[in-house]
Amino acid sequence: MINLNTRTSIVALAAITIAAFAFKAGNKDGWQSKFVTQNADGSLTYHPDDRGNTIPDFSRVGYHEQDTAIPDVAVVKTLEAPKDGSNARQLIQDAINEVAQRQPDAKGFRGAILLKKGVYKIADSLYIHTGGIVLRGEGDAKNGTVLVAADKGQRTLINVVGKKGIRVEGEKIKITDDFVPTGAKSFNVASTAGLKVGDRIILFRPSPENWIHDLKMDQIQERQGTKQWKPGEYDLQFERNINKIEGNKIFMDNPVVMEMDAKYGGGAIYKYSTPGRINEVGVEDIRFESEYTSDTDEDHGWIAVGYSNIENGWVRNVSSYYFGYACVSTEGGSCNITVNNCKCLDQKSQITGGRRYSFNNVGQLNLFMNCHAEEGRHDYVTGARVCGPNVFYNSTAKNEHADIGPHHRWASGTLFDNIVSDGQINVQDRQYMGSGHGWAGVTQVVWNCTAKSAVVQKPWVSGTNYCIGFHGKKADGAFKGRMDGEWEGQNKDGLTPASLYMAQFKARHLK
């Protein structure tokens, strides 16, 4: 279920209200996309292109696919802030380690650690390596629970970290269809022997030499440090579950988010497990601050909350001030994480590459919603080879210094839905930017967003990108000669549904 918080910003709340009204009542003066239309009963009809591609279903992202409400986990340990302002790092870490020794309940929770109102200086980092632990404060206001990244050192303040790695369980099974379109949830495989409903599978998409050549990513304009893309470096592993099996046909819970074409190596599936991952971890109701010496200081707190190798977790109702990189960064191996009602404010760093990625996602099946950022560069952003679906929904950015969107090296399957920014939203070929960013992404859907300007381009092969109901200027890309993605309804009011994510989520629950 979707949970809204009373501290949601006025802008975010207004957008949600508009979206909800449009969903329930329809918009008599509105219009619908040619790619997906909403029926009278709230169901959706997807309209394929001439290759069978559709906009995919983004509804199963976030904590337990948003089918389970984020719980209010019972407090088992309470801490008071040190009265003398001393380093509280060991105090909190000892509490985390103590709760980690508790036996989890039937739902996997060991308990919440409540940090009472006050200031907790932390001259290092905190680590959660065990599932079922919630770190909770008493609010993210100045008079709430304040965790301060004290002293020098570029670091992540709260590290929620499991053990890395996907364990392959069995042989790869080849997909036998010559072409599997974007949006598909089923396809034929060589054999379903040994597979059953409920199995976790990797949908594997290779990156052969001819694909990289046709994408022109072995032809990136050279400058010092440019790295051409190499075969095998862009193999993608999408995490899925088997919903149904009919003969040799597999049905999955989440869709294909980029074309899988036999001429580019097709694809395969294999069973997998993630024994090192942790789960059911939350960070909530805390204000994070970093000490700093100047507006361009870089030797201080860098990320407030970092998640890696964890699934089914959350960060909610937190704010960060004066960090150099991010409020929340969901790194590799983070899966089904919800980041809700968080703020990244007044960042301190140089304003250049590798800084100020306010809400950064490298994982998959993650949901960022009702967030706000100020003075960032890439406020809602994905990294390299990010496997979707992922969603950034109903969030705002102010005084942006760069752009929102996939940042580099082929993110696939991201929805930017009702994002409002005074900067740019870009999906393009970034060519030699960085060390050879190249095509930033495919199946990137910009839905009912507002910004100063946008660039949404179509890669040379393997799909397209969408810009539907965008309010703002259509800008030229950084490099000439690229094709436009699918643009529809620019500066046109009344797009229905107002939110694609909300409509897909509600349509799923009509069944």
TrEMBL record:
InterPro entries attached to this UniProt entry: Pectin_lyas_fold, Pectin_lyase_fold/virulence
Keyword list, A-Z: Signal
Keyword Signal included in the entry's annotation: yes
Superkingdom in the source lineage: Bacteria
Signal peptide: 1-24
Name recorded for this polypeptide: Pectate lyase-like protein
Species of provenance: Mucilaginibacter boryungensis
